[in-house]
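Example record used in the benchmark description.
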Amino acid sequence: MSLPRTHELYAPAEYLALERAAEERHEYLDGEIYAMAGESPEHGAICTNIGGQLYNQLKGRDCQTFSKDMKVRSGPAPRPGRTPKGLYSYPDLVVVCGALKFHDERRDVLLNPTVIIEVLSPTTEAFDRGEKWARYQTWLPELADYLLVAQTRPHIDHYHRRTSGEWIYTLVQPLAAGLRLDSIGCDLRLADVYDRVQFPPEPIDGEAADETPAA
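Model output (structure tokens):
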């Protein structure tokens, strides 16, 4: 997430009116509108690879995949006269099973994602791991799986919600590994997720390792 487009606070309805007329994408957090940065070739390739795997496995079933242009609301339904509150975000990939629930008749803001996948980047990683993840847990009761996919190495953080409501965490690596998404009956192989993705070279012996978190 980049810096706010403005310090003026907007109501969700004002944000949606502006966003639906805009050429570029913006996210909304508690009244502020944030411009979204462009993506790297690696980011785009990973999204395409995952989307292709999910599409092939979900064909003919009661689940469907949406890519980057579908918004998700993580917050209360807007009420007139109330302080602007809520998150409207653009996940990299969303899977929904069953009937689609939308914010309004425009059908461009989902309320009931089953799986959300974010491909990390330097400008979004802290937000994806922090405030966004907290909002997803709080406001998306039908969310069953949240995946954070690194760009610079074969590494996926997988959060799965049990039927009891408890979230469990699994680290998925290396490139030969895979993970199962029981909520949608799909498998992801890291070798396919990272197909044609060039990772940065490993540090030379004696050279200080890069301590920057994977993005």
